Amino acid sequence: MDELLQGLRAAAEPTRLRVLALCAHAELTVSELVRILGQSQPRVSRHLKLMVEAGLLERFQEGNWARYRLAGIGTPTLSDKNADRHAAVARFAEAVIDLLPADDRTLGRDLDRLQKIKAERDRAAQDYFARNAKRWDRIRALHVDEKEVNQALVRVFGADRGARSLGRFLDVGTGTGRILELLAPRAEAAVGVDSSSAMLSIARAAIDRAHLNHCQVRQGDMYQLPFADGAFDSVSVHMVLHYADEPARVLEEAARVLAPGGRLVVIDFEAHNLAELRAEHQHRWAGFEQEDVREWMRDVGFQVHPVETLEGGPLTVCLWVGERPAEANENALAAG
């Protein structure tokens, strides 16, 4: 009862209702909300503080910026503590949004201003692509067409079974968000994690453009993912391991956040001798031997599938697939 009353008090103010409506459509910084609302930064910050404390909004840090999002939208379990309370308040926040009048002029003007901010994000993303296109194209020319890789990724995840077939999905090292765009439509909720604020801006623009409201991106370390044990049903590590100093630790952390019965898919290059990728593109590893990755996956408890290879140039792309045993099997293994 106390949580409900706190939520009601926090929502019962015109500006805070506007903030709720905006944060249901996008993750926004304080400065972006100030631009849209036409109010001072201290006033907007006070509203946000109350709404976060009431559980109506989620606040997360990304570099020097704090971003805000409507609670519960596309958010897998970040912590087991107070999970039921958070879920109830999130449902209340969504109910409030549903009650807002669609023809309200102020809300309509706010959403028009939000679209301008999204357009600015998209232009910044396109500028970044233009600056880096030649460098990326040189690497793409060395391996099989990305369409084939994407088709294989959808198939090995079982994502061709349709909507929500991936459950709660995590993309580690999400970069530009391309894998989120591909797989999030088949997920119940989806999160992309990357250490780079610049890349997260690109990914955020991509998911905004694709209207993937159940999808979000977060700044995080692939060795210490900011999620609870078993928070996800599906995890991808796409073209990330060759940048990792300790790739086995990345797979160990992926295993931790996967629920029993969950699936991990690793996509990376087979071992090669193209030294320029290490010298010019900061690759830590010149690809991987197939059995090395399989062994790392087995060491952290995965049941490992046969490796799938996609040949088409000097570089061979491999897909390593592992399953977390279902709980009954895990218990049997522990007992044995």
Automatic annotation (TrEMBL):
<dbReference type="GO" id="GO:0008757">
    <property type="term" value="F:S-adenosylmethionine-dependent methyltransferase activity"/>
</dbReference>
<dbReference type="InterPro" id="IPR029063">
    <property type="entry name" value="SAM-dependent_MTases_sf"/>
</dbReference>
<dbReference type="InterPro" id="IPR036390">
    <property type="entry name" value="WH_DNA-bd_sf"/>
</dbReference>
<dbReference type="InterPro" id="IPR036388">
    <property type="entry name" value="WH-like_DNA-bd_sf"/>
</dbReference>
<feature type="domain" description="HTH arsR-type">
    <location>
        <begin position="1"/>
        <end position="90"/>
    </location>
</feature>
<dbReference type="InterPro" id="IPR011991">
    <property type="entry name" value="ArsR-like_HTH"/>
</dbReference>
<dbReference type="InterPro" id="IPR013216">
    <property type="entry name" value="Methyltransf_11"/>
</dbReference>
<dbReference type="InterPro" id="IPR001845">
    <property type="entry name" value="HTH_ArsR_DNA-bd_dom"/>
</dbReference>
<dbReference type="Pfam" id="PF01022">
    <property type="entry name" value="HTH_5"/>
</dbReference>
<dbReference type="Pfam" id="PF08241">
    <property type="entry name" value="Methyltransf_11"/>
</dbReference>
<protein>
    <submittedName>
        <fullName>Metalloregulator ArsR/SmtB family transcription factor</fullName>
    </submittedName>
</protein>
<dbReference type="InterPro" id="IPR050508">
    <property type="entry name" value="Methyltransf_Superfamily"/>
</dbReference>
<dbReference type="GO" id="GO:0003700">
    <property type="term" value="F:DNA-binding transcription factor activity"/>
</dbReference>
